[in-house]
Amino acid sequence: MPETAAIPAMAWIIFNWLLWGGLILGCGLSFCRITRLHDYLEDGRSLFPVFFSGYAFLTLLLTIEHYFTALNYYATIAPAAIALFGFISSLKDLRTYYTKAYQFIHENRVVSFLLLLAVIAYAFYSILGPVIFDTGKYHLQTAKWYAESPIVYGLGNLCPFFAYNNANFLLAGIMEGTTLHESSFHVMNTLLVVAFFIDITATCSQLFRGQSPNRLSNTFAIIYAILMFAFLFGKSRSITPAITLDIASCYTMKLLIEITLNIDRNATRQLFTMLLPFCALLFTVKLSYAFQACLTVCAGLYFCCRNSDYSLKLLKRYLRWSILFFLVFFLPWFGRNIIMTGHLIFPMNSTRLDLQWSVPQKDAHQVYADVKTWGRGFDSGDPTDNAGRSKFLNRPDAWELPLFSLEWIRPWLKLVWYNLCIWAFSIVLLAVTLITRRRQISIAASLIILAPWFIGILTLFATAPTIRFMRASLFVFAAYSFALFICNLKPLERLFAKLNLFIPLLLIAAGLLYYHKGVVNKEYYQGAKVNGFETAPKPTISPERIMIDGIPFYDIQGSLWYAPLNSEAPASLRLIDKNNIKKGFRKQHD
To answer: What is the DSSP string of 386-433?
Structure first.
């Protein structure tokens, strides 16, 4: 296959970035209009929070639409209309951003040119196959279910992985049902990484030219990007929720810092309103981040009240707005849990409802036990990587012991010691910084800011302490400690401001080196190139099949990829409607 065959593929990737990026941004602009964030746009602040709020708003729209229709072309009509309204109503404000973008390009021609080359190179990188095992195992299959059918009752009975209800799979599903049908790559995460990197580059330019009014929050975002970039770049070709979590965690913390340091009541309201979509995404994309999301909102409420001289009337207004916002976002999400699993929160049996399609208690408990044991047993992120497994998992009773013993701690520490070293060093650095006389923020405020992430780390440690789940919380903690240390020392702050213009260039170079390494998991990925694209491998379908209520279900050897929807059924599975698998599943009672 000649290399020139990749050029149309790259053009298709960039077209999808523009198409879906425009849809998400338009939804974000509509969100700003609905929530009356006119001043935020008029002030010309960072457009990325607006973009990400659009991402959250779009997932809400798709959540509601998926109750009634498959996520196909018809499902794009309402989001497209809302996005169009956002652009039309914000034309005046968008001129401000256009002027700023033109000024940035004019003042940073070399960086802008290299950024353009990096985006093109990243588009080439994006057409390769995924690097995460779970993409073949259930990510793409989940997107296919969403694209071909409205929400399915008891889908967790067919496969519990399909019922995790990660909100980012909704966007992957509508992409699967429209422009990216049965391709191994998805632009969802690569789009987020491109937008994030462009915003970080603009932030670096502001600090370099002394035009940044929020030095601490912007310094935090830059350091966080340095810590996270290799993970974002390497995993973005797969439909993993980790990318959304990593970026949302960055801006959740960034906005909370700005709320803490802001004394203007109107600006505080804008920042708090912008914080809510990020917290909603943390909760709905990964349930393990529910503590961080809820506690961050509580911290934001405290600082909003403090900045208004502890006005009880204003606190009640913020509290009512927060409750209304979360009801609008979470009621449809909880409804999806009930429909797909019969649990309010899956796989917690304490929230199980006695419905026809409810996942049986023993199956839900097995899912919970497997996740908890997997998190304590190894952290490689790739089940084919035997070197990543701890010796503890080689024991015959490994799948039962971690739930009741502490024997997993020593082998687990050997796998994650370098991540914990970063965290330990950041705690020491934070302590040294906070006890100095000159500091931008009080000790109490810093502890309140960090409390959601510290408690979140402890919660994850007690449940499924894999670094894949804990990484964002660890790096938020570390990046804040480093940023506070830098901003508290004037000479170091000035040096950082002069050097950070080169940070995007270093990240570009690191990304290209990472690409040159050829990170494709050849152990399980055997896709073929078609017109420059890496296409999804064909699953191996066994000729044997089982009949369930008159419908054949096929046995798949290895990963599912884009296997037929009627695949991999447990023997106890039954159909709610014997003529249609899309109507739902139940388990046969013993």
So the answer is: GGGB-GGGGSTTTTTGGGT-STTHHHHHHHHHHHHHHHHHHHHHHHHH
Cα separation, 425 vs 539, in Å, equals 46
pLDDT tens-digit readout, 556-577: 887 888 888 888 888 888 998 8
Residues 6+ positions from 187 with CB-CB distance below 8 Å: 13, 16, 17, 20, 126, 175, 180
What does the pLDDT read at residue 389? 46
d(CA 530, CA 256): 46
Residues ≥6 apart with Cβ < 8 Å to 386: none
Are the CB atoms for 581 and 153 separated by under 8 Å? Answer: no
C-alpha–C-alpha distance, residues 122 and 520, integer Å: 15
- Cα→Cα distances 398→160, 215, 370, Å: 21, 48, 10
Radius of gyration of the chain (CA): 24
**Cα 303 versus chain centre, distance:** 26
Q: Could you give the CA distance from residue 519 to residue 12 in angstroms, rounded to a whole number?
A: 22
Nearest to 196 by CA among 122, 110, 291: 122
Residue 103 tokens read as: 């000024």
Burial code (b: 16+ CB inside 10 Å, e: under 16) for 359-384 equals: bbeebbeebbeebbbbbbbbbbbbee
* Reported confidence tier of residue 390, pLDDT bands at 50, 70, 90: very low
**Average pLDDT of the segment spanning 1-15:** 72
What secondary structure does DSSP assign to 94-139, as a single string? HHHHHHHHHHHHHH-HHHHHHHHHHHHHHHHHHTSPP--HHIIIII
Residue 586 φ/ψ, nearest 5 degrees: -140, 165
User: Using CA atoms, how far apart are residues 397 and 399, in angstroms rounded to an integer?
Assistant: 6
Express each pLDDT in 432-475 by its tens digit: 887 776 666 778 888 889 889 888 888 877 777 777 777 888 88
- The whole-number pLDDT of residue 387 equals 46
Chain centre distance of CA 240: 7
3-state SS class at 384: coil
Distance CA 590, CA 579 (A): 23
Question: Omega before 347 cis (within 30°)?
Answer: yes
Predicted local confidence at residue 524, as pLDDT: 52
Mean pLDDT of all residues in the chain?
A: 81
Question: Distance (Å, rounded) from C-alpha 590 to C-alpha 584?
Answer: 19
542 exposure class (CB count in 10 Å sphere: 0-12, 13-18, 19+)? exposed
Which pTM value belongs to this model?
A: 0.88
Q: How many CB atoms lie within 10 A of CB 423?
A: 18
408: left (phi over 0), alpha (psi -120 to 50) or beta: alpha
Cα 82–87–90 angle (5° rounding)?
A: 120
pLDDT above 70 for 99: yes
φ/ψ of 91, rounded to 5, equals -60, -40
What DSSP designation does 7 have?
H
CA distance 296 to 581: 41
Which residue do the tokens 């974000």 mark?
A: 28
pLDDT digits 0-9 by tens, 52-79: 999 999 999 999 999 999 999 999 999 9
